Amino acid sequence: MPPSNVLKPNVPTGFGLMGMTWRPKHTPDEQAFATMKKAIAQGATFWSSADYYGMPEPTAGLDLIRRYFTAHPEDAEKVTLFIKGCVDPQTMQPKNKREQVLASAETCIQRLGGAKKIDIFGPTRQDPSVPLEETLGAIGELVAADKVGGLGISEAAAQTIEKANAVYPLSLVEVEFSLWTPDLLSNGVAATAKKLDIPLVAYSPLGRGFLTGQVKSLDDIPEGDIRRRFDRFQPENFNKNLELVDKLKAFADKMNVTPAQLALAWIRATSNSEQAGTIIPIPGATSPGRVEENTTVVSLSPQDKTELDQILASFKIQGGRYNKHLEHLLWQ
Ligand SMILES: NC(=O)c1ccc[n+]([C@@H]2O[C@H](COP(=O)([O-])OP(=O)(O)OC[C@H]3O[C@@H](n4cnc5c(N)ncnc54)[C@H](OP(=O)(O)O)[C@@H]3O)[C@@H](O)[C@H]2O)c1
Known about the structure:
Strands 1-2-3-4 form a four-stranded parallel sheet. It has helices at 18-21, 29-41, 60-71, 98-112, 132-144, 158-167, 189-196, 235-255, 259-270, 288-295, 302-313; strands at 15-16, 46-50, 80-85, 120-123, 152-154, 172-176, 200-203, 279-281. The radius of gyration is 19 Å and the shape is globular. The chain has a single domain, classed as NADP-dependent oxidoreductase domain (TIM Barrel). Helix 7 (189-196) links the parallel strand 6 and strand 7 (200-203). It starts with 14 loop residues before the first strand and ends in a 19-residue tail after the last helix. The mean pLDDT is 96. The chain is of the alpha/beta class and 332 residues long.
């Protein structure tokens, strides 16, 4: 039997942990711990990670979380932790069969070593060749056994959200949403999540750093960084997309806020509006200063919001969100 009271995150800003470990150079523990502590102090207590956020060792992200909560057991109850799994870390293709889901969850639980419970667990992508009932049923088994607390899915289309929630009540849906990826407002995802009262977790809300204005040339992205594989960051698209960033930077300057704060303010202004239900941005950052900047809420007046929407409508983003190997897994 699915639980009657479903855990649903509800904070203005969450925190994405991917960048700490899914990069050629990991964030040293001292800095990572200070950043994580800062997130909690700032109320960004919804954390998102995955069982493949590590290079070269896929589980490095889980290992960081274990070390943090081992050092700070007093914080374990303060944080709602969402872990995605069920993919091949080399190819990023889904592994959503029952036994694969159970194995992925078991790996996560073992790596976390009891230092932190997985509050919400779920598949990273949908696999149309595996029935949703099989994948989500396996997670239902994990919830029933109290191994994880609830179910979240990612990159789901509107009809998948509707179907999944009928199979097993969803705690959240994690989807890309930002000033350069507003798709969920027009593809039915926001409307469906609002209707079903399911929080959307907005991933890459700063456009993987691009919208902050700090990535000015490809040289600002280290070799081996995953962004170098994505279409929007290819040389033929990069400079064109920078034109949007310049416009946003001018807008942020006018408001006396940073471009990152503007990007997050636009998301918060969309949350709980006519267009959408709850949307929680999860900016990734590796320093306490950036977490403080990103969690310092600045508000947009309706006129600011309209002006920003007009800028977006006048601009065509160049390049897909991922690349030809991964495109078929989006909005599934
Ligand atoms: N479900 C999915 O398929 C999926 C896919 C991608 C991401 N995610 C989740 O979404 C989270 C966030 O996404 P993301 O890391 O891809 O992108 P993001 O949050 O849009 O951007 C993170 C980048 O922006 C930089 N940054 C953060 N705050 C800044 C500031 N105030 N000023 C200047 N630069 C700033 C970060 O730098 P530093 O890190 O160097 O500080 C990092 O390079 C991830 O941690 C992950 O949990 C989920």
